[in-house]
């Protein structure tokens, strides 16, 4: 019944989408945005029938610099998009906000397919291309301009719902993010990032409504301060991007931002070591979800990482609270014991708690998932929390071991969605070796399917060439979610780590369908290389 209700709502919202009063934009829901007009907040939906997901028709994105690229002499990294469709074909338009000639590009994408877009080779016709990377890079080499905003953004619209993924690549320097549609944006965000190593951490905010203002909240003092542009409050208009930067070795985790209209909010680090001090660094990049789509229960699996040099630490997790007196329980997770290069043995800024401990608004802590047992961590809170997962450094001699630091936000179990369409980030072999090593024959690409245990054997994966067979023996059940003591009245959860065949058509899309819903994460690894992102989930208001 859940799928049927979703189909009915989707059909209704499709009708609303084309009504003139809604401005002809929007993604996944029965409301949209007209430039400069007040934002229409959707009415709370019944959780079972909420139609809002990470798929949509209206997206904005920008790209950032990765300092480690400079170590390899790569001043201009690769900026790429992957846009996927489900069973419906889509006509997609990319519009570079800076305007001028050659700023609009159109694509037709067939059903169950994907479009791989290299922003350095935007097609002008025939064999003629133009490099548009400078139009989406708001922070140039040499620091942040004043005022700290620009129009170096990219607007993506589609005639039918699509998923959009963005990749910032360099040799041994890659991360990726899902791009969230405008209806999934919010007005209340907390930063989940990581400490930078010798460089800076960044906060990136995109506006889609004229007259957008931002405020910085101090949860301890209970004060709100407008973000200023000189003597006046900073004002963002449609397509503007704002950016702020930490001090060297800084960590913006815990930073609390509110706005008068919904905005897109990205975390970024030019380079981070995870844990800090391990000799493997990489950029971190992810679009974060607003507080109103946070939840109370989470399953966080480990990614597959080969650590030939002896580092067998699992993925790390950060958990942040937005309300005082938030009780957080965690199972199969542990406070990491870390020694840093600078002699610090604690993680600066965190509030480590044991399972069942209490966080106040804005406080956060870090866990490590052991690589044993269920190889996953179950998190349960009595108030909604934000969660991010981090791939760790390989911790050894360069060239040994798979994997590198990367970040993804983790959706709550409440954000299960009936289906997700994803396409692996496959380069043509050795096509862009100056920008990434993920085009090497040994690169490996995966998706993690998270689903209720009761329906795991009924999960289907559909492509344009037919169904994909999942081995029922490869599902990993999380015992804590099935335990009536640790999860009374809750849903038992399982996950499946599926490896994409490198020989697969890079334009093939995989549609994952679950009768009780799924969440899909995606990642890739190579020696000294990795990316990690949420590939698809619900984006409903479950924490109003």
Quick gist of this model?
The protein is mostly beta strands. It has three helices and 34 strands.
- Give Rg in angstroms: 21 Å
Q: Please, how many helices?
A: 3
Helical residues, percent = under 10%
**How far apart are the termini?**
25 Å
| Main pleated sheet | 8 strands, antiparallel
Mean pLDDT: 84
Low-confidence stretches are 1-49
In one word, what is the shape?
globular
Number of domains: 1
Proportion of strand residues = 35-45%
Oligomer: single chain
| Main structural class | mainly beta
Number of beta strands: 34
Task: Describe the overall structure.
- The strands form six sheets. Strands 8, 11, 12, 13, 14, 17, 18 and 19 form an eight-stranded antiparallel β-sheet that branches. Strands 27, 28, 29, 30, 31, 32, 33 and 34 form an eight-stranded antiparallel β-sheet that branches.
- It is globular and about 60 Å long.
- It has helices spanning 2-17, 67-71, 479-482; strands at residues 56-61, 78-85, 90-96, 104-109, 114-118, 122-125, 128-130, 149-150, 154-170, 173-179, 186-190, 201-207, 214-218, 223-226, 228-229, 232-233, 241-245, 256-273, 281-287, 295-301, 316-321, 326-331, 357-359, 364-368, 376-391, 406-409, 417-422, 444-452, 460-463, 466-468, 476-477, 493-499, 510-526, 529-536.
- 5% of the residues lie in helices and 41% in strands.
- The model is unreliable at 1-49 (pLDDT under 50).
- It is mainly beta and 544 residues long.
- The protein starts with a helix and ends in an 8-residue tail after the last strand.
- The protein has one domain (2-536).
């Amino acid at each position: 019944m859940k799928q049927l209700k979703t189909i009915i709502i989707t059909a209704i919202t499709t009708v609303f989408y084309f009504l003139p009063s809604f401005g002809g934009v929007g993604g996944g829901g029965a409301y949209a945005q007209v430039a400069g007009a007040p934002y229409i907040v959707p009415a709370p939906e019944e959780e079972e029938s909420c139609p809002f997901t990470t798929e949509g028709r209206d997206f904005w994105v920008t790209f950032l610099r990765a300092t480690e690229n400079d170590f390899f002499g790569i001043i201009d990294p690769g900026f790429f998009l992957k846009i996927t469709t489900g069973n419906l074909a889509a006509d997609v338009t990319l519009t570079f906000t800076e305007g001028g000639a050659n700023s609009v590009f159109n694509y037709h994408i067939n059903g169950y397919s994907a479009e791989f877009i290299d922003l350095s080779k935007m097609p002008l016709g025939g064999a003629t291309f133009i490099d548009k990377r400078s139009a989406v890079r708001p922070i140039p080499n040499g620091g942040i301009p004043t005022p700290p905003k620009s129009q170096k953004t990219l607007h993506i619209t589609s005639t039918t719902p699509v998923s959009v993924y963005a990749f910032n690549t360099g040799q041994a320097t890659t991360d990726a993010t899902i791009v969230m549609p405008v209806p999934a944006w919010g007005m209340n965000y907390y930063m989940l990032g990581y400490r930078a190593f010798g460089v800076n951490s960044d906060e990136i905010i995109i506006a889609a409504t004229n007259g957008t203002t931002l405020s910085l909240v101090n949860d301890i003092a209970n004060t709100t301060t407008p973000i200023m542009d000189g003597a006046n409050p900073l004002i963002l208009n449609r397509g503007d991007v704002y950016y702020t930067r930490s001090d060297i070795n800084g960590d913006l985790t815990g930073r609390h931002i509110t706005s008068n209209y919904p905005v897109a909010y990205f975390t970024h680090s030019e380079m981070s070591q995870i844990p800090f001090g391990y000799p493997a660094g990489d950029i971190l990049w992810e679009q974060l979800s607003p507080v109103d789509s946070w939840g109370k229960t989470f399953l966080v699996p480990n990614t597959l990482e080969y650590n030939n040099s002896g580092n067998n630490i699992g993925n790390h997790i950060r958990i942040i609270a937005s309300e005082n007196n938030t009780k957080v329980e965690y199972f199969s997770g542990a406070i990491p014991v870390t020694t840093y290069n600078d002699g610090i043995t604690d993680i600066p800024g965190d509030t480590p708690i044991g399972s069942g401990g209490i966080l106040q608004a804005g406080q956060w802590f870090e866990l490590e998932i052991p690589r044993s047992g269920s190889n996953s961590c179950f998190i349960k809170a009595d108030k909604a929390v934000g969660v991010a997962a981090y791939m760790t450094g390989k911790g050894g001699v360069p060239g040994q071991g798979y994997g590198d630091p990367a970040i993804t936000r983790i959706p709550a179990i409440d954000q299960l969605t009936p289906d997700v369409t994803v396409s692996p980030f496959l380069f043509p072999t050795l096509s862009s070796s100056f920008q990434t090593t993920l085009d090497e024959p040994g690169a490996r690409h995966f998706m993690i399917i998270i689903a209720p245990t009761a329906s795991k054997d009924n999960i289907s994966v559909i492509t344009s060439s037919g169904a994909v067979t999942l081995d029922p023996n490869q599902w990993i059940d999380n015992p804590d979610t099935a335990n009536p003591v640790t999860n009374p009245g809750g849903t038992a959860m399982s996950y499946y780590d599926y490896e994409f065949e490198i020989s697969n058509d890079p334009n093939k899309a995989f549609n994952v369908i679950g009768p009780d819903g799924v969440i899909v994460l995606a990642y890739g690894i190579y020696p000294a290389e990795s990316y990690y992102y949420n590939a698809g989930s619900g984006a409903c208001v479950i924490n109003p």
